[in-house]
Amino acid sequence: MSSNRSGPQSASSTPAGLPVLGAPVRERADAARNRIRVLEAAETLFAERGVDAVTMDDVAGAAGVGKGTLYRRFGDKGGLAMALLDQRERELQERILSGPPPLGPGAGTADRLGAFIEAYLDLLDRQLDLVLLSETATTGARFRTGAHTLWRQHCRHLLEAGGAQGAEIAADVLLAALSAEQVRHWRRDREIGSATLAESLVRLVRSWLP
């Protein structure tokens, strides 16, 4: 299982002070191709059937790799699930740090915050059960992940730059609203559409900026 979800110590920092998730381990080209096939197959199966209903054999068959290869690389389904989530979080991190605006550098504060909210909700729409698992596995697990450290620092930095009062607490409030458990309640129990939810949260955050 990737260490990037084990705690804030897995996040290093950029020269500007924004933490980044640790660099992936280098791998052979064939191993990289197998990893991509496995993660794509797992993402599709998890989305179609739900995490609980998918077996490691299902993933191996869909990816066209041997079961031994799958188990050696990921250990079990939990390790596979966390690797998939880690990959998606890295992709979002790269878009925040060096992608095009408004999510990446170059846009105004309010636009970057809005783009982050929309991008993170999109990640949750695709990986909600995995994020929920990572955030609730133990008490307070959400606060100990390297990814949470990155998202919090990013939001705090933008809120401070935009002149928001109490940016530290405001960043915590925003991420509490974006927790997997809260978003699941809004999306599945109250049946609030993703676009409506994003619009409401973006409007709320914009109200914090002078």
UniProtKB/TrEMBL annotation:
PANTHER family: HTH-TYPE TRANSCRIPTIONAL REGULATOR RUTR, POSSIBLE TRANSCRIPTIONAL REGULATORY PROTEIN (PROBABLY TETR-FAMILY)
Keyword Nuclease included in the entry's annotation: no
Protein name: TetR family transcriptional regulator
Chain residues forming the annotated DNA-binding region: 55-74
Biased composition annotated in UniProt, kind: Polar residues: 1-15
Keywords: DNA-binding
One Pfam family named in its UniProt record: TetR_N
InterPro entries the UniProt entry points to: DNA-bd_HTH_TetR-type_CS, Homeodomain-like_sf, HTH-type_TetR-like_transc_reg, HTH_TetR
Keyword set includes Metal-binding: no
